[in-house]
Amino acid sequence: MKVYCLSEDPNKPCFVIKLKSVTIMLDCGLSAHSVLNFLPLYPIPDWKPNKAAAWIPKNFSDPQIEGELNECMTNQVLVNSAPEFMTPLTKLVDFADIDVILVSNYMTMLALPFITENTGFKGVVYMTEPTLHIGKLFLEELVDFVEQSPKPNVAKYWKEILHLLPPPLCNSFKPHTWKQLYSLAQVNSSLTRVQMISYDQKIEITGALTVTAVSSGYCLGSSNWVIYLESKKLVYVSNTSTLTTHPRPMDQFNLKNADLMLLSSLTQAPAANPDTMLGELCLSVAVTLRNNGSVLIPCYPSGVVYDLFECLSSHLDSTALGQIPMYFISPVAHSSLEYSNILAEWLSQSKQNKVYFPEEPFPHAQLVKSGRLKHFKHVYTDDLWNDLRQPCVVFCGHPSLRFGDVVHFVEYWGTNPQNTIIFTEPEFPYLEALAPFQPLSMKAMHCPIDTSMNFTQANKMIKDLKPAVLILPERYAIPPTGFGHKNEFVIDQIDRKVLTIRRGEVISEKLDIKTVNVPFTTEMVVSVTLNELQSGLKASKFTAVLDTKDNKYKLDILRDDLLANKTTEPYLLETLFKKTYEWGQLDIDRFLRALTNEGVSDPKIEHNAHGYTIHLKSEDTLIQVDDKSTHIFCEKMDKNWRLKLRSIVMECLNSF
């Protein structure tokens, strides 16, 4: 088995594994961290605050670089162009060879159009129903954000002079591989390749192996994957949570005792407790609102935002601020709110129970009905500004602050020190996100909320699941930057074989498959008669044809057409109709006597650690015998001698 790592960020994973003749891609995450190197796209046309001046390196003059770079008030240099994203590696694996893509959740499918479109991809993509529908919302929102503010120019030359640029731009990771975003047509085309599956449903892949999705507890429809190959079991653990939130709880049972586990997507905020961060967020929102300020929360259109609606509305009620309106602004806001309430089977038990009362499983349905939570498609719609009442709380994207409606609100509210922006997504360093908007008077808070497992929880899970081999990103073997030698932020590498992998690396792991299940046809079963060899042991001899097709095997009865075939070798027919079957070890004394009877007078025996070697010099033949096998190397080009030698060996074995 070979494992290929195509991603730089363990939280935007993309792996490819090759098993037997099958090539499987595990997730296709899209890293958006690269967009922080670009100027923001303003959602309202012709409204672009002049906070960044044109910049070129000192003592450098080349007309190609003009207009490509701008310097912010914080002296950070950004690219003036449409944003570009870090996609999975394209040259390590030919995407046309991929048979199957297994998607764990809607956050790890955002590079799907880059994989399936214009690459020769002919395979199938498997994911759960919520992953498909919510992932579609994420893809559509991302395209809408970028396309609503198109940049007339595409900056390229800056990538040729990285050594002349200031940090962090000069430290960009392989910017030549970054790509501009796909189109909506490519999104729709890629989603036509998706087949929806349910938890615990067994999917057969080209007859060679079986895959099953089990709940990971991270978000609606999120999955871990179990792959069965003959007697071997492999598990892929992506974003997984043991916390009690709105999704169905994690299924650990099906992950136990795997021969190999591939781990990715642990928390991006290892030092931050989600409950503590949520509490701090609620307190900060309440304080801001009491001081007549408004709160801006950059967010994605699904996921943690549902929990924020629930917890924040409850906290505001308890602090006599229940009259404060909340606004959810996204081109897919309506679809997200509606769809989340019809996914009962994918929810936690407490949420499912509400459906049968009947109640909406999420409080935001009631918040919308009562008018406390209002949703709008875009910041530039008249309906929003006719309705907007301050102080208020606004949820909108994108968390990078480089495109989307949040860009306008940062500029609109940024000059008022009573307002607060609260960052909950740990993916983007908030100071880098704010850099092009400085100087800002509004307060900024960082409350990263990541419900994925932390390292302590992951180590406990691994200990309980007992995988024989563990493969993990190289980053998980060393403490994160800024945390020194704290072992609570690394994965333990004791009691099992551990392999680390990084972007562009390929590792091989041998799967010692000793047995293959071969079923009998019904006719074959009827033809078999068991004979008792000794007390408690029965056996049967039979002649059958081994049929192999699409990586599947079966034993069938011998058909008349094979017997009637004139090209069938006589010795094969002899084998088909033989009356005895051999087993056990070679009787060496009997074998030597049989050779002498056949006129072979010069056998030479050499003993070794595993058995012995018999050299028949006159016949130019070497016979190696050990506990489990007999190998004959015959240079003599005499078919009759080969058949005779074979018969002698068979006579010197036990038979029934």
From TrEMBL:
Family listed: Belongs to the metallo-beta-lactamase superfamily. RNA-metabolizing metallo-beta-lactamase-like family. INTS9 subfamily.
Q: Please, one GO biological process term?
A: snRNA 3'-end processing
> Which residue range or ranges hold the Beta-Casp domain?
305-434
Q: Which UniProt keywords apply?
A: Cytoplasm, Nucleus
Primary subcellular site in the record, as a coarse category: cytoplasm
Specify the species.
Macrosiphum euphorbiae (potato aphid)
Q: What is this protein called?
A: Beta-Casp domain-containing protein
A cellular component term (GO) from this record? integrator complex
Q: Where does the record say this protein resides?
A: Cytoplasm; Nucleus
Q: Which Gene3D superfamilies match?
A: 3.40.50.10890, Ribonuclease Z/Hydroxyacylglutathione hydrolase-like
Q: State the Pfam families in the record.
A: Beta-Casp, IntS9_C, Lactamase_B_6
Quote the InterPro entries the UniProt record gives: Beta_Casp, Integrator_9su, IntS9-like_C, Metallo-B-lactamas, RibonucZ/Hydroxyglut_hydro
Nucleus keyword on record: yes
Q: Which domain of life is it from?
A: Eukaryota
